[in-house]
Input
Amino acid sequence: MLINHERLKNLLIELIQIDSLSRKELNVALRLKGEMEELGATVFIDDAGEKVGGNVGNLIACFPGNRAAVEPLLLSAHMDTVVPGEGIVPILEGNILRTDGRTVLGGDDKSGVAIICEVMRVIKENRLPCGAIDVVFTICEEAGLIGAKCLDVGQLHARTGLVLDSDSVGYLFTKGPAKKRMEFHVYGFEAHAGVCPERGINAIKVAAEGIAKMQLGRIDHETTANIGMIEGGMARNIVPNQVVLHGEARSRSLEKLDRQTEHMKHCLEEAAARHTLELDGKRHTARIEAKIEREYDRMDVPETARIVKLVHAAAKNLNLEMKTDATGGGCDANVLNQKGLVVANLGTGMREIHTVHEWLDLNDLYVSAAMVLEIVKLNAAENHGVKPKE
Ligand SMILES: [Zn+2]
Output
């Protein structure tokens, strides 16, 4: 057993206590920069921080390895955490790590970060044969994957690897949806609600009619849609002239994603067309303005990809059951795949993430670290005839 459980646990607990909300990852980045340099990596921080208005960029640590013929691997996790995530007090009961109930734990994704550090420590202290490894600790994953979006993958040696950013250690996520975000502005016509409501078009009513016609929620096994926020109106006694709707749609099929987005827009346009008004010889119609953006692309790593085979082989060596699966969420892997890399998402043990009930079983963390180490060893063995299981 090469993974040092105590050391890994202590690092995780230390990292969790360094506040690192999105755009405020500086302190944790500095801690990790020192760690990576000590382990022999060439480390640099890119300019993503300036681009997204944060206090630090992505941290890229390149380990040269000691086997030139071995294909380089990417290991990545994100440094930022969601709110409420400041002043986290980790509480350890047996092997369960949780919070005091006021904040998230930040195991998402400090568990991934800690695992990568521990694996690199083990490789160094045991002088294990391995190829080049690019470690990338990103910023602002939780803010819409914008750290990864700013990452120049031309700076990396690896073209394949893993993001450690999902819950169950028995799963490798290889497929994930593309996502579009939508902002619909619904315009009506304002009027005094008591004196002359017939001189107005109620934008809230238009929006409501449009939304009522929309298919939302789970559309099919690979498509979801949501209107998550609505704002509008000015006062109780004014017929409202504007409503803004914030929504999203996700699908692993780009065609379905486009169809769903069009459907949502169309429902609102139809509702708007039904609301017209003749006023002083001028015709007014409610109208819709839609801002639709592709937030990220889908993840679609084939079963035959080398990284998937490596993960299955490593699981087999460790007698671990491993399934590849599709997720409904997005992660940095979506962006990295879009940039031409082949990256899947491996679980770390984090649970009930993005809630103050977040917890983590340390045993899962240890298994995940052993998996990553085995993957690195197998990657070296395949290219060099190094016996993988020691
Ligand atoms: Zn995450």
Q: What stands out?
A: Residues 78, 108-109, 141, 165 surround zinc ion (CB under 6 Å).
